[in-house]
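Whether sequence alone determines local backbone shape is best considered at the level of individual chains. The sequence in question and its structure tokens are set out directly beneath this paragraph.

===
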Amino acid sequence: MKHALSILLLIISIKASLAQGGFNKVYPPGIGTFTGCVGPNNTYLAAGQVPLGGGYIGAYLVLVDSIGNIIKTDTVTHPSRSLKPGLWGSAHFKNGYYWIAGQAYLRGWIAKLKPNLDTVWSKVFRFEDSINTVLHGSLVIEDEKFIVTGTASAVPPWDTIGRRSLYLAEFDSTGKRIWEHNYFAPEPTGQAMWQWGSQVMGSPDGGYLIAGSRAEEGNGNNSIDKLLVKTDSLGNKVWEVTFGSNYSDPEAIIQNLSDSTFLSVSTLTAPKKPTLQPHYYDGYILVEIRKYQDGSVIYSDTLLPYYPGNAIFSVVHNSNGDWSILGVFYPEILQPHDPNRPYSWGSYILRLDQDLDSVWYRDIVIYDTLGGDNILYDLRATPDNGMVAFGYAADLGKPSEMWIAKTDSMGCVVDGCHTVSVPELTLSNDLLSVYPNPVGSIVTLTGSQELKGKPLKIKLFSLDGTLADQKENIQLPYNYNLINLKSGAYILQYEHKGEILGQSKIIKL
């Protein structure tokens, strides 16, 4: 396997436009979309929420055709509770029906709908005597077992500390609960621990993999860890793994690779840049990939050091074996603000090949104005080898709207967005090492024996292909001063006698 920083990177900001390859549209009056799925006949269902008056919220559904035109909208309500679809893959089309999981104010909520969005059943429930049950992720398997995960807030007498447990349950095709489990975190100090499930997947042995988080109550973000749990077919825990950093986006997203191997994708905090404005998402955030076998890490690496606030929301294993990662980033934290990304939040799709090497990257926004929010939560593969993402967007000072972005196989909502006149750089750092990375001012370049004594020419490109700096006739090791460069990611290309020997990626803090 090549190093995970091997990358063919094209940075393209995708603006709102209609094209054959995709579409990029918002749908008022929805106040947010948290999940969605691919329906029959090249249709797409977005599941979000809409205000009903009197402080109540309904689950708002928008069904669109292959080019984003509305086919039907509907609202699912409850007589006494607000309904909200869950995050991170809580809507599915399976066996001729839509299945949705979420929350109904202090209760879990599940629903089964016909293709025309008519309700077959809609039910609310809670775990035993818990005061709150919230569902985030769900799974539908062939025999119409509906598996849901989330969190349950504990109350006495069965818990005296007030913990929140990770919740897993199975329902049948009629909405009847077959079994349920809650999994508590250990309490080494007597302090209440919270943990929750964000996503659940089936494993080839008939069991389930749950991705989520664990945190110590009262310690803010510094104690958040990622949590992975493996269960058998009846929800009995087989093993669990936790990992994290001083702060990281908590949820780990999982995908199966084989009978005993699976992939987790999450984020990891890099060294904080002192000049960043104070914020919940301080620090440069890296995409972290881990490969597990029977609960043990067999491979780990980081990808795409990018803006502060990077968070991973969804991962898709494409039919050709490639991977697509959906995330968001927070450019507003950078001071001075990046003029090419004036919005507060933006979304992106990162494509990896079968060896987990990066192939391309796309910014996806619809409101590229100052202060605009562009947050996509859920990503699904489409029958045409493209992708569709669901989330919400808001122009500055205006209400949020449901947002659906459909792309082609190259991540474009506009045909040919990947055809640009910038260098296409395939990175390989087999010969050259750079450290520290990320770097504040001076990075040291060292080389293998093959580069010893060779005068090198180095070129530093920004990710849009602009030549930012170059040096000639350098000898390794070499201390490269980057103090005058703007913060961001750069490609370092090194040559000898006109021959390009390779490239490395450098992050300037």
Summary: The chain has no helices and 37 strands. Residues 13-407 form a domain with the Methylamine Dehydrogenase; Chain H fold (CATH 2.130.10.10). The mean pLDDT is 76. The chain has two domains: 13-407, 432-508.
